[in-house]
Write a structure and sequence with these properties.
- This protein has 134 residues and is mostly helical.
- The protein has a domain of 82 residues: Winged helix-like DNA-binding domain superfamily/Winged helix DNA-binding domain (Arc Repressor Mutant, subunit A).
- 60% of the residues lie in helices and 10% in strands.
- The protein contains six helices and three strands.
- The protein has a three-stranded antiparallel sheet with strand order 1-3-2.
- A hairpin with a 2-residue loop joins strand 2 and strand 3.
Length: 134
């Protein structure tokens, strides 16, 4: 296996990890929990007051976020308080997902022109003949 191929394999592993993280947070309730915890540590009752779903369902979502190592729990007697383990990452994701994006759609023809221009600027691939029909 070439060094480049080995590097790509490693990259694939990192991207799989990132995809797993995105799958974990790709649920509205979990995003709401994370947004709530961005304000600071909270107990289950506090989170449940903001997110009105049955407590067992909330616990399942919290467990998924804990398994993804996004949040952790501090236990003090019968009180369980949750907090974010990766605050910078979570805040950036929440901010990104909450923002109003004023991106304009790209024109298909403009995209094709840009791709052709890039391909032409790279020149022909080594070993490939310039083929013309005829």
């Amino acid at each position: 296996m070439s060094e480049e191929a080995a590097g790509k394999e490693t990259d694939l592993g990192r991207w799989e990890e990132r995809a797993r993280l995105l799958r974990t947070i790709a649920q509205p309730i979990r995003l709401m929990i994370l947004e709530s915890l961005c304000e600071g540590p909270q107990c289950v009752a506090d989170i449940n007051a903001l997110i009105a779903i049955p407590q067992p369902h909330l616990s399942q979502h919290i467990a998924a976020l804990r398994e993804a190592k996004l949040i952790a729990c501090h236990v003090n007697g019968s009180l369980r308080c949750y907090y974010i383990l990766k605050p910078t990452l979570v805040r950036r994701l929440i901010r990104l997902l909450s923002a109003e994006h004023a991106e304009r759609e790209r024109d298909r023809a403009a995209v094709i022109r840009e791709a052709r221009r890039r391909r032409e600027s790279r020149g022909p691939k080594p070993g490939s003949a310039n083929r013309t029909g005829g």
